[in-house]
C-alpha cells in the first residue's frame, strides 16, 4: 500500500490536519530520507521522516503505512520516534529561556507586580492635592 506523506503525517497524528501537513511540506519543513519532499511523495516502510517544528526537528521511522487517522494508542505500531535527545534538550532550553530572557516589565505583570501596583495606587489615592495640609505648607513660606 502506498500513501502520500501529508496523509501519513496526519494519520499518525504529527499534524492536526492534512492541509497543515501539506503546507509544512510545501514550506520545506518535512524531509524523507534527508530529501525535501512535496506533499504527494509516497511513503514506504523503513523511511525516515524529518519534521521541523521550531526549534526542534523530530525524526520518525516508518514501521507500517497507514492511510486513515488512528487513535493515539495505535501510533507506536506505525512510527518509531528516533529524535535525538539533543533536540529535546534544545526544546527544554527554549522553554526555560523564555522566562529567563524576558526583561523585567515586559509581558503581563506577575501576581506580585499586580499587588505592589495596587498598594501604590491605594497609597496615592488617599493623597489629595485639595487637602488643607497641602495649602498650609505653601502659606508658611
Automatic annotation (TrEMBL):
Pfam families (alphabetical): S4
GO MF assignments: DNA binding; ribosomal large subunit binding; single-stranded RNA binding
CDD domains linked: S4 (cd00165)
GO terms for biological process, alphabetical: cellular response to heat
RNA-binding S4 domain residues: 3-60
SUPFAM superfamilies, per database record: Alpha-L RNA-binding motif
Record flagged with keyword RNA-binding: yes
Signal peptide span: none
Keyword RNA-binding: yes
Annotated PROSITE patterns: S4 (PS50889)
UniProt-listed InterPro entries: HSP15, S4_RNA-bd, S4_RNA-bd_sf
Superkingdom per UniProt: Bacteria
Record keywords, A-Z: DNA-binding, RNA-binding
Family affiliation: Belongs to the HSP15 family.
Protein name: Heat-shock protein Hsp15
Lineage per the UniProt record: Bacteria, Pseudomonadati, Bacteroidota, Bacteroidia, Bacteroidales
